[in-house]
Amino acid sequence: MAYQITLIPGDGIGPEVSAATVRVIEAAGIQVDWEVVEAGASALADFGQVLPPKVVESLERTGVGLKGPTATPVGGGHPSVNVALRKKLDLYVNFRPIRMLPGTVSRFNDTHIDMVIFRENTEDLYSGLEHEVVPGVVESIKIITRQASLRIAEAAFAYCQRENRKKVTAIHKANIMKMSDGLFLRCCREVAERYPSIQYTELIVDNACMQLVMHPEQFDCLVLPNLYGDIVSDLAAGLVGGLGIVPGANLGARQAVFEAVHGTAPDIAGKGVANPTALIQSASLMLAHIGEREASVRVKNALEAVYAEGKHLTGDVGGSASTSEFTDAVCANLS
Ligand code: NAI
Question: How far apart are CA 313 and CA 244, in angstroms?
């Protein structure tokens, strides 16, 4: 029986990396009846809306989505599709595992990096509450709630317990934002008390960035409010070979949308050189989520084999292969 999964190809390199990922899932022998829907700049051009109701309806029906990146204009224009989608479906966990693939060229090749990021996905400065107080003065409102902070901390600790991870680090700026980040921290501490076997530490976000660059091996699981989670995710991606690598999952109580950390990469869009690894790794997480654990592991192993061989890698990770040559190599390892 084929799985019903929503596919949002997205903008920029989105359609290229999505097509590659669909090929890999097929090569893994998983039958999917894709419901393809448009969101982002492409949907704005075709339907006059960045997030047409069809997208949300499809995800409510299928419960699972694979999403390419969508463009958001800077300093004006339409609001972010991602923020809207995450809020509409209450996809409150943004989960991002940070791990080096074999053969990746990184300054940290001799360092053991294996951490997971739990980014709160629904509030903070992403609430989109901005206004001009008087000309020349604007206000952006940072919302932190007890409910959202408790559930992201709970998600992080529960995951660590299930996966036998040892340490959770909460990242904050509660020395300055004493009320908002202070509440986030109190919630993390409250949840930590219920998991005495997991070590709990806290770090101020600026120090955390320095520590991540100097000693990334010390980190296991990070839990962060939305904005710090966004920034630290890209920093962490840089440790393991860049944005072409790192996968992600947006998880809620009823739906899960799998997407890479990276954006639409307008500088390389349409050139056939984008690295689809991040979305393929996201698809591997998706396969595990729908119960196809064996296929999930096979996809992961096929990627690792291509990286270990090093002959068919894309430009961002030091190779010269095109998106399709890389994808052919992954598929060949699956058959
Ligand atoms: P970006 O992630 O698109 O690109 C940053 C740099 O990384 C670029 O040099 C790009 O070529 C490179 N890169 C990213 N993904 C790559 C891949 N798969 N293979 C090879 N190289 C890759 O970030 P940027 O430029 O800040 O954002 C561009 C657009 O993407 C913006 O409109 C932004 O709002 C959107 N965006 C969307 C996201 C999403 O839909 N989940 C996430 C992040 C950004």
Answer: 11
Q: Does the residue 114 lie in any domain?
A: no
Give dist(CA 309, CA 66) in Å, integer.
Answer: 28
Whether 250 and 152 map to the same domain: the answer is no
Judgement on whether residues 257 and 195 belong to the same structural domain of the protein: no
Contact 105, 318 (CB under 8 A): yes
Residue carrying the six token digits 């609430």: 127
In a domain, 234, yes or no: no
Query: Mean pLDDT, the chain, as a whole number?
Result: 96
Summarised one tens digit per residue, pLDDT across range 254-309 is 999 999 999 999 999 999 999 999 999 999 999 999 999 999 999 999 999 999 99
pLDDT at 95 over 90: yes
Instruction: Kindly tell me if the per-residue pLDDT of 313 is higher than 90.
Output: yes
Name the DSSP class of 270. Answer: T
| Closest ligand 1 atom to 275 CA | 19
**What's the CATH code of the domain at 300?**
3.40.718.10
- Whether ligand 1 lies within 6 angstroms of the CB of 267 is answered as yes
User: What does the H/E/C string look like for 282-300?
Assistant: HHHHHHHHCCCHHHHHHHH
Check whether residue 176 and residue 264 sit in a common domain: no
Instruction: Report the Cα–Cα distance between both ends of the chain, in Å, rounded.
Output: 20
Of 264, 271, 314, the one to substitute when testing ligand 1's pocket (max ligand atoms within 8 A of C-beta) is 264
| Ligand 1 contact via 69 beta carbon (within 6 Å) | yes
Residue 145, in any domain of the structure = yes
Ligand 1 pocket check for 286: Cβ under 6 Å: no
DSSP 17-30: HHHHHHHHHHHTT-
Q: Which of 190, 221, 252 is the last residue of a domain?
A: 221
**Confidence bin at 76 (pLDDT 50/70/90):** confident
User: Can you give the residue range of the structural domain that contains 91?
Assistant: 1-106+240-335
Q: How confident is the model at residue 104 (pLDDT cuts 50, 70, 90)?
A: confident
Poorest-confidence range of 42-51, 173-182, 321-330? 42-51
Whether the full predicted model's pTM is greater than 0.85, yes or no, is: yes
Check pocket membership of 18 for ligand 1, CB cut-off 6 A. no
- Does the residue 235 lie in any domain? no
Query: In the chain, how many domains are there?
Result: 2
